Amino acid sequence: xxxxxxxxxxxxxxxxxxxxxxxxxxxxxxxxxxxxxxxxxxxxxxxxxxxxxxxxxxxxxxxxxxxxxxxxxxxxxxxxxxxxxxxxxxxxxxxxxxxxxxxxxxxxxxxxxxxxxxxxxxxxxxxxxxxxxxxxxxxxxxxxxxxxxxxxxxxxxxxxxxxxxxxxxxxxxxxxxxxxxxxxxxxxxxxxxxxxxxxxxxxxxxxxxxxxxxxxxxxxxxxxxxxxxxxxxxxxxxxxxxxxxxxxxxxxxxxxxxxxxxxxxxxxxxxxxxxxxxxxxxxxxxxxxxxxx
Length: 293
Fold this sequence. Notes:
The protein is of the alpha/beta class and about 290 residues long. It is built from twelve helices and five strands. It has a five-stranded parallel sheet, sandwiched between helices. Helix 1 packs parallel to helix 11 and helix 2 packs across helix 11.
């Protein structure tokens, strides 16, 4: 099945309205086998590309996932990355900042978790929380130990957007490709998933009262996300708005976007010099001649 990644890419620099972006995005039908085959073919290709990335050891890929509660970030990461060699992939989930983290700038704790060359890094939430949840709940700024004049500054969000753009440009200049996913869930679908988490005992652990409390700020979050996407989607570090009401569709869309990105990286296995080929041939000869030892 054909998926066009450009359909979901945000053109930064101009205002967007998330109401204009689809939350359903049906790219698969009711045929479960078709979905399994489509996802399997993509995970196979992703595995091969990840092996090349790891062997070359010159580039890195950072995937950032942001969404409202119950949008399916964990499931998407689990299914899309199921074929990846764990040795070449690192996943980090960022929760409430620790005391140590609050003693540093807002990018510090995530910078420490950046993927090494040759690896894929996944951020389940990220430094973008600092222009999303903190913007919706500005009282959090009071606990971030900022100088007083910064706490009161009306342009603090523009400043943080600039810091993020500069940071991601720096990563791009040093070989790390950044791709960002906003899983776009409808308010009605979130309500249904919250009810499932309450009604199904095996899902009770996923539900917290805070989830419903955050739901009361839905409109504020939509506005914060719209501003964030418009301000920080760039040519080298784009945002993709992925319809999240249909989990299988969102997983296929995400997998195709990752593949499209890695194809564009033009990854290759390290080249072997003529001298190295001669060395390998000599070693092979020794092994063959010593086969009876």
